[in-house]
Structure formats: C-alpha cells, structure tokens
Design goal:
Layout: E1 3-7, E2 10-13, E3 18-25, E4 33-39, E5 46-51, E6 58-60, E7 68-73, E8 78-83, E9 92-99, E10 115-116, E11 120-125
Parallel strand pairs: 2-11
Antiparallel strand pairs: 1-3, 3-8, 4-5, 4-9, 5-6, 7-8, 9-10, 9-11
C-alpha cells in the first residue's frame, strides 16, 4: 500500500503562484512515476502533469504548459507542482497519484495510476 498526502492548496488571485506538495509513504517511491490530476466542479478528472521515476521525463497538459512545473525529490519521497500565472479555470481539487510505470515517458491516463491522494483544493479568484 502507498499513502499519498497532498498539501499547499489555497485561495489565490489570478496571476498568483502556488506550490503543491505530495508526500508518499509505504512503498518505494524512487522507481515509480508520479502524476498530478485535477477535478473541477461538475467536470471529469483531468491530467495535469507527470514525471518519471528519475525526473528525466515529464509531460504536461496543453492547458498548463509553460505555467506549471512538476518535480520530485526522491530523497524526501515528495513530488511537487509549481503553479505560476494561475487562472480562474485552474480552480479544482488537485490530486497526486502513483504509477508503477516509472520508466520512459510517464503516463497521462488515470487508469495507469495505482494509488491516489485525498486531494487539495486550489481556488483562483478573478
């Protein structure tokens, strides 16, 4: 079993920045890919960003490219999502997730992720 705990969400204004963190425990972290997803009210969960086990491969949704950066610190079993130039449409509950597909290009489909955190709310006011 893997436990994932997100933190760092909050209420910000358009153009502000936030950094989300996700701390993992319970299983080896350094050989697995990690991803961030989000779900806005009345919308389906959508992919945001993912990173391979080494940190050498990342991928982003088109809607966040150039604004968000995913990174990881395997020594701390933590993955981060730096979110800059936030927009009201970024408002959602953000979830981190853990995937056994650690090598190569990390997956964007949620079916490839085995464990999920409880989520952290990000609200961007206009």
């Amino acid at each position: 079993q893997v436990q994932l705990v997100e933190s760092g969400g909050g209420l910000v204004q358009t153009g502000d920045s936030l950094r989300l963190s996700c701390a993992a425990s319970g299983r080896s972290f350094s050989t697995y890919a990690m991803g961030w997803f989000r779900q806005a009210p009345e919308k389906s969960r959508e992919f945001v960003a993912a990173i391979s086990w080494s940190g050498g491969n990342t991928r982003y949704a088109d809607s966040v490219k150039g604004r968000f950066t995913i990174s990881r610190d395997n020594a701390k079993n933590t993955v981060y999502l730096q979110m800059n130039s936030l927009k009201p449409e970024d408002t959602a509950v953000y979830y981190c997730a853990y995937s056994r597909y650690g090598a190569g290009r990390p997956p964007s489909g949620d079916t490839y992720y085995d464990y999920w955190g409880q989520g952290t709310q990000v609200t961007v006011s206009s």
